[in-house]
Structure formats: structure tokens, C-alpha cells
Amino acid sequence: MKPEIVRIGPEHLAMLIELFDRIAVDPEARHFHPHPFTPLQAEIRAVYLGPDIYSLMVLRGRATGYGFLRGWEEGYAIPSLGIYIAKERRGTGDARRLMNHLHEVARLRGASHVRLKVHPDNIRAKRLYERIGYQFHSALDRGQCVGLLDLRSGRSIEFVHGRAGPKSYPG
Ligand SMILES: CC(C)(COP(=O)(O)OP(=O)(O)OC[C@H]1O[C@@H](n2cnc3c(N)ncnc32)[C@H](O)[C@@H]1OP(=O)(O)O)[C@@H](O)C(=O)NCCC(=O)NCCS
């Protein structure tokens, strides 16, 4: 059985709080800190109605994955992606499924690229991104590798001083 992917809404608040509690204490997520994983942050996302996308993977009433595309709200043309897969679902292909879903959302929104940041020690995540087609700039941005996926051709766009041009979300 595969989890479904849903856009987060108020009806997901309880399972989102529970997932954020797990992320907050997961040693493998020590490099994953797009925002604090607190009940307050879960509440903010559950009622969020703006242009950024916050998604959950749900299996048998439990949240097993979290992913987002953000930056549109701040006016960036290239959104930044982040994902988390619960321990019990790692190695199942869910990470790739969630990323494919987010890439499709970005494509439908007219984005040419998706950007992400990953800590160089996060070998598992970096390897996944490379297999999917992300290209990494050789220079680090505040200690993080910066990856770009070209949604049209799989090629990366030119980096400018380690950033993907002026319109990509820095986060
Ligand atoms: C990063 C994450 C989403 C990847 O999901 P996953 O289900 O674990 O990914 P996979 O099992 O598909 O593994 C990805 C790749 O790493 C490899 N891998 C698995 N375990 C590994 C390990 N311990 N060391 C190195 N590589 C490993 C897999 O073989 C796979 O490579 P392949 O496609 O060449 O076979 C998940 O591990 C996670 O949520 N981690 C914590 C949060 C996080 O780091 N998020 C990303 C922040 S940038």
C-alpha cells in the first residue's frame, strides 16, 4: 500500500503535529531545519492559504512524509524544495514519489527550475537528488550544497556566485 499525497489543510493538524514531534528528535534530520518543528509551526502550515506548497504523505491515517515548495510567496520564480520521509518509509521509493509530485506541481505553476540545499554530510539525501537529476554547484552556500533541477530538460542553469540567478529562493 502506498501513501497518498495531500496538500496540508486544517484537517491534518493532529497528524502534522505528531510528525513534527518525530522530526524534531530524529538524529537523521539534524541537517533538515527549514523551520522549527514545533506545534506552532504545524498550526501555521495547517491554515496556510498562500502560494507556497506544503504537502503530506499519509498512510493509514498517519503522516509518513512532509514536503514543500516555498519561495513563491516571497516573489521568487524558482521555488526551494525540502522533504522528510519517516524512518519506517525510507528506502521504499516514497522520497522519489514525493519529489516527483512536487516537481510536477512546480512545472504546472510554470517554474523552470527547482532549487534545494543539502548538507554535504547528508549523503543519503544528496545521492537521491543526484539520481533524480539535480546538478550541484561546486561552491557551498553557508556550508550547504546547492542543487538545481531543470524541469524542462534536466540541465542546470548557470550559477551566479553560487546562487541560481537573482530569482531563486535563497532558503
Ligand atoms: C533524505 C530522505 C528524504 C531520503 O529518503 P530515503 O527513502 O531515505 O531515500 P532512499 O532510500 O531512496 O535512498 C536514497 C539513496 O541513498 C542511498 N542510501 C540509502 N541509505 C544510505 C546510507 N546509509 N548511506 C549512503 N547512501 C544511502 C540509497 O541506496 C539511494 O541511492 P540509489 O538511488 O543510488 O540507490 C530521507 O532519508 C529523510 O527524510 N532523511 C531525513 C531528512 C532529510 O535529511 N531531508 C533532506 C534534507 S536536504
Give a short summary of the structure:
With 171 residues, this protein is an alpha+beta fold.
Write the layout of secondary structure elements.
Elements: E1 4-7, H1 13-24, H2 39-46, E2 53-59, E3 62-70, E4 80-85, H3 94-108, E5 113-118, H4 123-132, E6 135-136, E7 145-150
Antiparallel strand pairs: 1-2, 2-3, 3-4, 5-7, 6-7
Write down how many β-strands occur, each being a DSSP E stretch of 2 or more residues.
7
CATH architecture of one domain: 3-Layer(aba) Sandwich
CATH topology of one domain: Aminopeptidase
Overall pLDDT score: 92
Question: Share of helix among residues?
Answer: 25-40%
Q: Which CATH class of one domain is shown?
A: Alpha Beta
Placed side by side, the strands forming the largest sheet appear as: 1-2-3-4
What is the straight-line distance between the termini? 34 Å
Could you tell me the radius of gyration in angstroms?
Answer: 15 Å
CATH superfamily of one domain: Gcn5-related N-acetyltransferase (GNAT)
How much of the residues is beta strand, in percent? 15-25%
